[in-house]
């Protein structure tokens, strides 16, 4: 990773604040198993440069025998993971550069692949061991699979665990849940409360009970097993959301990622809260430079929700994930996601609108001022990086633009002006200082700030310009696809 997406000062400040909130959150909860609480409350005071992971991929015989035909698949994942770690993570700083890792598409794509593979693997192994008791199965699993994975993955000075840690937990959750899921009562929702499992159904002795209880608590099986029932209940309480088409959802997530860097320091989850009913609320966060939300109680303090597993997030690869159950894929998950995504989009666009006040430079003219160049360079160059890394619509500074039938793409100012002149007879002229004006005969002028030589114009800003110039989106897209 040659370029930094976020400034050093922002990362240091926000990592410190997040760590303090995480500790407060953990200390406020009595329902978390103490060893798990100790593990989650990791020390981030020491800043160190991440070393390359130099060990060859190798696992003991019992691990190979336990996985059988799936061993080569896991081995290949680790070989690929080491390559990605050494290219994108090694040489950066821990913990500050977590921001960079979470916003690197190839890294997040790989984590998603490991999640999917390990989830399927856990259920497959559970089926093979279905005749064992829950405790016998877990003891076999811990000895032959989890222990070898843990020993190989965690290595001093490296951070290979960033790529595999959550997937290893998911592997255990998907395995053990197959043995204990019937121990939970049939509830409609468990948001905001701890749920007890009837382990007596699976245990013959008190010793077995205590040992299995430890595993259930350590791997947070309650949230994993109950989250889907709770999502179904919650979705029934919200207005029926109009689900996005894949390309539309991609564009909304894209627009949000473009604006997030401007609000990393000022975002207030208390003011970004969606009330569902008298008890439940959704709090929207941008902790690590990506949009996420946590389900909690209406009167919760956002900083005390940092340790919650009831967190949902979108990645730069457009994946939408539930932290409680990373392999969750029921329709209600995506219905809730699209509902909150719309709210998130509206909230961040509203903040951007406040940042760009109206100003009557000509009759009925809206004056749009881009963020000050000094501030935006100090904050981040994430937007430009993100365009280059992720966009399938803009390549090589927008010299090549692929076509789309559904969405208005972001594009460079020069390409946009050229297209608007040719296809819609628009007039382009310079204004005061770095201003640029665009208008059509019979319509109002729209003024933009040009803070660098050929800036990107956000897709949502293009849509505002089209509306002001009296151009229908469908007509514009039709012309664009023929241009």
Plain-language structure description:
A hairpin with a 6-residue loop joins β4 (280-285) and β5 (292-297). The strands form five sheets. This protein has a five-stranded antiparallel beta sheet with strand order 3-4-5-6-7, covered by helices on one side. The protein has a four-stranded mixed beta sheet with strand order 8-14-13-12, covered by helices on one side. A two-stranded antiparallel ribbon has the order 1-2. The chain is 49% helix and 10% strand. It folds into three domains: 8-183 and 197-219, no CATH class; 246-355, no CATH class; 366-482, no CATH class. It has helices at 8-27, 34-40, 61-67, 71-89, 98-102, 105-128, 134-153, 161-180, 206-218, 221-235, 246-259, 331-355, 373-379, 382-390, 413-424, 459-468, 473-482, and strands at 48-49, 93-94, 273-275, 280-285, 292-297, 311-314, 320-322, 366-367, 394-395, 400-401, 411-412, 427-430, 435-439, 446-449, 456-457. The protein contains 17 helices and 15 strands. By secondary structure, it is an alpha+beta fold.
Key phrases:
single chain; alpha+beta; 3 domains
Largest sheet: 5 strands, antiparallel
Rg value: 25 Å
Helix coverage percent of residues?
40-55%
Strand proportion, as a percent range, falls in 5-15%
What is the 3D form?
globular
| Terminal Cα span | 36 Å
Q: Kindly state the mean pLDDT as a whole number?
A: 82
Summing up helix and strand content along with how strands pair, one would put the structural category as alpha+beta
Provide the low-confidence segments as ranges: 356-405
As laid out across the biggest beta sheet, the strand order is 3-4-5-6-7
What is the count of distinct domains?
3
What's the number of extended β-strand segments?
15
Discrete helix count: 17
């Amino acid at each position: 990773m040659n370029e930094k997406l976020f400034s050093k000062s922002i990362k240091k400040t926000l990592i410190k604040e997040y760590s303090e909130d995480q500790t407060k959150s953990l200390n406020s909860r009595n329902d978390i198993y103490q060893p798990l609480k100790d593990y989650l409350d990791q020390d981030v005071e020491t800043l160190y440069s991440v070393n390359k992971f130099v060990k060859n991929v190798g696992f003991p015989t019992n691990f190979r025998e336990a996985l059988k035909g799936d061993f080569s698949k896991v081995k290949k994942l680790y070989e690929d993971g080491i390559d990605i770690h050494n290219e994108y993570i090694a040489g950066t700083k821990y913990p500050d550069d977590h921001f960079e890792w979470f916003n690197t598409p190839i890294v997040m794509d790989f984590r998603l692949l490991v999640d999917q593979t390990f989830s399927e693997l856990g259920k497959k192994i559970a089926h093979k061991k279905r005749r064992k008791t829950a405790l016998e199965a877990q003891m076999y699993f811990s000895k032959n699979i989890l222990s070898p994975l843990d020993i190989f993955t965690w290595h001093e000075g490296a951070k290979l665990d960033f790529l595999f840690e959550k997937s290893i937990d998911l592997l255990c959750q998907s395995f053990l849940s197959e043995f204990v899921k019937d121990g939970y009562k049939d509830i409609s929702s468990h948001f905001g409360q701890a749920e007890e499992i009837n382990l007596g159904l699976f245990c013959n002795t008190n010793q077995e009970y205590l040992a299995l209880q430890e595993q259930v608590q350590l791997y947070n099986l309650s949230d994993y097993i109950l989250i889907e029932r709770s999502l179904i209940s919650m979705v029934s309480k919200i207005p029926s959301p109009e689900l996005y088409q894949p390309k539309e959802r991609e564009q909304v997530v894209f627009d949000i990622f473009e604006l997030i860097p401007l609000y990393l320091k000022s975002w207030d989850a208390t003011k970004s809260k969606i009330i569902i009913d008298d008890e439940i609320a959704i709090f929207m966060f941008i902790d690590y430079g990506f949009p996420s939300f946590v389900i909690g109680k209406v009167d919760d303090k956002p900083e005390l929700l940092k340790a919650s597993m009831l967190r949902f997030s979108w990645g730069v690869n457009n994946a939408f994930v539930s932290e409680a159950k990373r392999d969750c894929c029921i329709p209600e998950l995506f219905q809730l996601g699209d509902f909150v995504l719309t709210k998130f989009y509206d909230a961040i666009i509203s903040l951007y609108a406040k940042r760009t006040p109206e100003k009557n430079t000509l009759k009925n003219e809206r004056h749009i001022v881009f963020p000050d160049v000094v501030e935006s360079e100090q904050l981040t160059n994430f937007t430009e990086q993100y365009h280059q890394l992720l966009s399938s619509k803009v390549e090589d500074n927008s010299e090549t633009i692929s076509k789309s039938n559904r969405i208005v793409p972001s594009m460079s100012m020069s390409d946009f002006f050229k297209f608007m002149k040719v296809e819609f007879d628009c007039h382009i002229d310079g204004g005061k200082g770095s201003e640029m004006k665009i208008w059509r005969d019979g319509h109002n002028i729209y003024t933009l700030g040009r803070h660098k030589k050929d800036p990107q114009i956000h897709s949502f800003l293009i849509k505002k310009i089209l509306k002001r110039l009296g151009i229908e989106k469908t007509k514009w897209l039709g012309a664009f696809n023929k241009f």
